[in-house]
Write a structure and sequence with these properties.
single chain; alpha+beta; Glutaredoxin; 4 strands; about 60% helix; about 15% strand; globular
Length: about 180
């Protein structure tokens, strides 16, 4: 990526994070935005549809709102605006920068929850509450699905990693069985 494009992405992320921080519930918006970006990244058909120049912006907007009804019109409109600005391939990078910028602005920790399947809002809130309890600080968590993960979840906040994934547990069992230290 060129330096100019990187610079423009950072400026866009900063502006969007400042806008999001003025909302009544910025964490909720960031969570819904993140969930939509994750699904778009994992679904080649959606990416192809959004990048198809034969589909009008109104058609894309209607499809996004139909597909991501629970995310809300505000998230769908923002995603469409970014796609129409040629940022489809940068959505994940932009999402990460927005979350980081929001954390800097609000003096919160940022973290990531990785799971094999999408987590619902209630489960993400439970995880966030537990991380807040452990760290003693407010935390802005970004959820990501890793289809290569067998199950469980892995949480990273700063240098702290809580790995409850089946992959990690199997690695630990393998170490014990092979006589290594777990």
């Amino acid at each position: 990526m060129s330096q100019e494009k990187q610079h423009n992405l950072e400026k866009t992320a900063k502006a969007l994070s400042q806008l999001v921080m003025t909302m009544r519930d910025p964490e909720n918006f960031a969570g819904r935005f993140s969930a939509v970006i994750n699904l778009i990244a994992q679904t080649p058909g959606i990416r192809a549809f959004l990048s198809d120049p034969a589909v009008s912006a109104d058609g894309k907007d209607a499809a996004l709102q139909e597909l991501f009804d629970s995310a809300g019109a505000d998230v769908c409109h923002l995603v469409l605006m970014l796609v129409e600005c040629g940022l489809l391939n940068e959505l994940q990078t932009l999402r990460d920068k927005i979350v980081s910028e929001m954390a800097l602005t609000s003096r919160r920790l940022t973290g990531e929850v990785v799971s094999a399947v999408p987590l619902n809002d209630e489960r993400l809130q439970q995880i966030r509450n537990e991380v807040v309890r452990i760290t003693g600080q407010e935390v802005l968590l970004n959820a990501r699905v890793d289809k290569g993960m067998m199950g469980g979840i892995r949480i990273q906040v700063g240098d702290m990693i809580i790995d409850g994934s089946i992959d990690y547990q199997m690695d630990q069992m393998q170490q014990v069985l092979l006589g290594g230290d777990a």
